[in-house]
Amino acid sequence: MERLKDGFVLKERYRLRRRIASGGMGAVWEANDELLHRPVAIKIMHPHTASEQVFARRFRDEAQYAAKLRSSNIVNVYDYGEDHGLAFLVMELVTGKTIAQLIATRGPLEPEFVRSVVIQVASALAEAHEWGIIHRDVKPSNILVTASGEAKLSDFGIARAVQGEPLTQHGEVLGTPQYLSPEQATGQPASPASDLYALGVVAHEMLTSVKPFDGATPVAIALAHVNEPPPPLPSSVPSDLAELVSRCLSKDPRLRPASADAVIQDLQPNTGGLRMVPVPPLPDRRPPAPPLTPASPTTGRQPLAPDLVNPRRTQQVLAVAATLLVVVLCLAALFL
């Protein structure tokens, strides 16, 4: 991948400009389509994975799955090709931030912003599920949001058609541990309800800025999904939103919303269509100015302020597994 740099041209058409991100299967570049004169994003598969049949098949599947879908809340796929020994996927370039970046810089997000994002991601999932496609990796880093509040679901790299040929080996579970459904963790196949569970985890994390299920190892995280209840949401979260998140996080898939469309119906205001909520501004992290204390009447000096004691706060253990990478968990016999 060392040859990939600013100015490198793929298929005599796509000129690379700068690398945006890098993951386990490849890297994403901002590029220019010199035929249609528009900016695009290009995911280029790492050469060492291109030679591995399963990874190459998943990469092609991502192109085919995403190309079928027609939703303003899914990142559009324009083209797929191979050139210079590299397989690549040409996509819509979305100017914005991922939900993961927003949580990292802003902390808990406003409930009405969360409501808007959840409705839009549910709309994307409804389109995918209508085509019989399960995303299987709904997480904050796969949700892009523009400044105006438009949310787009990306990365169908480990998506699977419900009736499609399985690409996993016996005993493998694909997904990111913090967003893995209990049924997947116990060796059952993923279903549309699994995507709704992951959406519930994302919504909970947006409202609190903390992953509801975490642990020191992927296995510990998976067991938490199976056995532990999610932490309570702040009392400031509207009751309908809190109830929806709770139902999405039900351990039993049958107790979750019946479909992605049902999620939209539960959260959509009765007054009309979706009201997109702009991305919240960055919080002011400057320390507050110290209060003015009147001078001592006898000495004219400012009295000394008492020592301030910061209360201890407990913190959840950070997960070892990186959320930007697709990980393989060998938890139980699974044949997807």
TrEMBL record:
Enzyme class: transferase
Single GO MF annotation: protein serine/threonine kinase activity
Biased composition (Pro residues): 278-294
Catalytic activity: L-threonyl-[protein] + ATP = O-phospho-L-threonyl-[protein] + ADP + H(+); L-seryl-[protein] + ATP = O-phospho-L-seryl-[protein] + ADP + H(+)
GO biological process: negative regulation of fatty acid biosynthetic process
Domain of life: Bacteria
EC number: 2.7.11.1
Domain Protein kinase intervals: 14-271
PROSITE patterns reported in the protein's UniProt record: PROTEIN_KINASE_DOM, PROTEIN_KINASE_ST
InterPro entries for this protein: Kinase-like_dom_sf, Prot_kinase_dom, Ser/Thr_kinase_AS
Pfam family membership, one: Pkinase
Region (Disordered): 278-307
Keywords of this entry: ATP-binding, Kinase, Membrane, Nucleotide-binding, Serine/threonine-protein kinase, Transferase, Transmembrane, Transmembrane helix
Ranges annotated as spanning the membrane: 317-335
PANTHER family: MITOGEN-ACTIVATED PROTEIN KINASE KINASE KINASE 20-RELATED (PTHR43289), SERINE_THREONINE-PROTEIN KINASE YBDM-RELATED (PTHR43289:SF34)
Protein name: non-specific serine/threonine protein kinase
Lineage: Bacteria, Bacillati, Actinomycetota, Actinomycetes, Propionibacteriales
